Amino acid sequence: MEELFRKIAPYNSGITRLVLNNPRIWSPVLKPILQKSVTSNALIRTTQAVTMLRGSDKENVLPDLATASVNCRILPGETIGDVVSHIEKSTAGLGVRVKPIPELEGNDPLPVSSTSTETYRALDGAVRSVFPDTVVVPSIVLATTDSRHFKTVSDNIYRFVPVVLTRSLLGSIHSSNERIPVVGLKNACRVYRELLKNF
Predict the structure, then answer these.
(1) Is 0.70 topped by the overall pTM?
(2) 95: left (phi over 0), alpha (psi -120 to 50) or beta
């Protein structure tokens, strides 16, 4: 995220430019601003969402056991172990037992990919050839993707979708009416074609 801020700094002015050029120094100012939005808040911390709850089958029967599944998107630099420890500390004394779901274990965040490679420069060029007014910057992908399966064959894995996502489209991901406009699909194909030509 620091690299993202520094790369967009030149396109800003005044105090905003100063803050973005020095994100570590200005983190007490940046953090509260980023925490105001669900999306930007997820860029600076591990997120947790309770996705499944189980308890009693009847409204008038107390369950012997209640379970909750908590889906976590782990911030790069943190691990599954860090998240388990955090939840254990947060629920200490409540009789809660925390354990990763076995089939999902091993999904620590991938290392941050370099932006100083020929591949990243080719990606940058492909995007700007289709979207000439775009500033290409690195960011964090807030989703689990199949990219984790490539960590044994590549040091740098660029998780990337060349589609302009409006708030409405972002809100449709994994939800009702998930979609990409036809023009978005067409432009995505153009970016991938340019990327292949760049190689």
Answers:
(1) yes
(2) left
